[in-house]
């Protein structure tokens, strides 16, 4: 595109809350045929709440929530915030934790009163050789909820289901992107059953689930290796390598500084429709030179 077209395009973008880093990003955006979208915080609101507390192995709701909140004190994860605010609103004060560890993409662990506990994905519990109630887990996941498992060293003490609602704008934005010839693929560290339920709600036909934070960029590289021009939209620190790997990375809305730094385009509005706007803007800019 001509320098004038680029300037006009960039200026129009800025007016619409679409901040484009450079001319190359503006030109590439219009060629995107595949858009990978982070689930948590991008498709969904990113403010999950605890919806179900299911004790197991002789535990009770109060104990389960107290132990879970105790472990989550040291975590920055949105799921941790959900657990801590549920505990607070039920008047449960977390206890002290030692040997705390955050297990990236899996959960948290630590010792309470000298005994080890873990809280995390069903995959983490399985990894630790724990026996999971698959029926309970599957029932909750089919509702689009994330299930985390609280366990002692030897036994599962219960399950917490945590729901994160879709943004109102997500369904319309996905529909619009599809109509523009852009395939939308959801990317998440969450399990496949939860991902499938959310994908159906959002109108998304394809997703990559149970992807560890360090593997997200590799999923983008695989798509690029198929010759596709790939966009990636996300907001988290976890998403930064994938935003860099993509042909065009979009940092969405209230995104972290790390995501914004990694991205080619920053969207002021926390809304997937802005990605569609950016692609439209690029296509219009490219048309002006032909
Ligand atoms: P996402 O791609 O949705 O941001 P993450 O990679 O951050 O997902 O986490 C993947 C999964 O690991 C979560 O769905 C959850 O099961 C588990 N997990 C990660 N962090 C925590 C935590 N602090 N507490 C409980 N579970 C966690
Ligand atoms: Mg995330």
UniProtKB/TrEMBL annotation:
Assigned protein family: Belongs to the cation transport ATPase (P-type) (TC 3.A.3) family. Type IB subfamily.
Lineage: Bacteria, Pseudomonadati, Pseudomonadota, Betaproteobacteria, Nitrosomonadales
Natural source organism: Sulfuricella denitrificans (strain DSM 22764 / NBRC 105220 / skB26)
Cellular compartments annotated: Cell membrane
Protein name, entry field: P-type Cu(+) transporter
Covered residues, full protein: 452 to 741 of 793
